[in-house]
Write a sequence for this structure.
């Protein structure tokens, strides 16, 4: 469905269906997304949904694109440690409260067998890490940015999604100290 359409009914349908799909994807995971469930949640017929999103992947792709398009990152203040702390706590909150963990699980599970999903995985990673990357690029030598980004985001992801623990202020501060300790040493 073209987002450049000027017909407000078409734009409303698109918005409602993609919103319903995104909510379903985040609340219940990839496997819960079906044309029937999206129709039920959005209030549109399955025929309408199939006409514009013929496959479940079309629905998921539209939802992930929307999630990425509306993603926001905390505004950087210029203080490296405070900006990293704020961004990492925001990421941990997105994983738990925002249910980003469910979305990531579905994408990771399918990325190795589907080129479109690989693209979605890349888009999610680039969108999700752009704020942290910008902070690190401002303060670190370029050779340290990627490793630091991976260590920071990976540690929060493991802590929250795999260990089922909170990314407490103490955990985040210790993580930042460890990563910056190696990245900033001469």
């Amino acid at each position: 469905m073209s987002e450049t359409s000027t017909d407000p009914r078409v734009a409303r349908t698109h918005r409602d269906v993609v919103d319903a799909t995104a909510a379903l994807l985040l609340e219940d995971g990839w496997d819960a997304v079906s044309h029937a469930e999206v129709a039920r949640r959005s209030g549109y017929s399955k025929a309408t949904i199939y006409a514009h999103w013929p496959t479940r992947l079309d629905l998921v792709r539209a939802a992930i694109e929307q999630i990425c398009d509306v993603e926001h990152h905390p505004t950087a203040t210029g203080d490296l440690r405070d900006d990293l702390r704020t961004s990492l706590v925001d990421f941990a909150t997105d994983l738990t409260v925002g249910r980003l963990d469910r979305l990531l699980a579905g994408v990771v599970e399918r990325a190795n067998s589907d080129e479109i999903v690989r693209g979605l995985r890349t888009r999610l990673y680039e969108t999700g890490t752009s704020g942290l990357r910008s902070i690190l690029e401002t303060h670190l030598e370029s050779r340290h940015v990627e490793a630091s980004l991976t260590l920071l985001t990976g540690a929060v992801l493991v802590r929250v999604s795999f260990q089922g623990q909170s990314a407490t202020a103490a955990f985040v501060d210790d993580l930042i100290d460890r990563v910056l300790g190696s990245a900033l040493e001469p």
In short: The two ends are 53 Å apart (CA to CA).
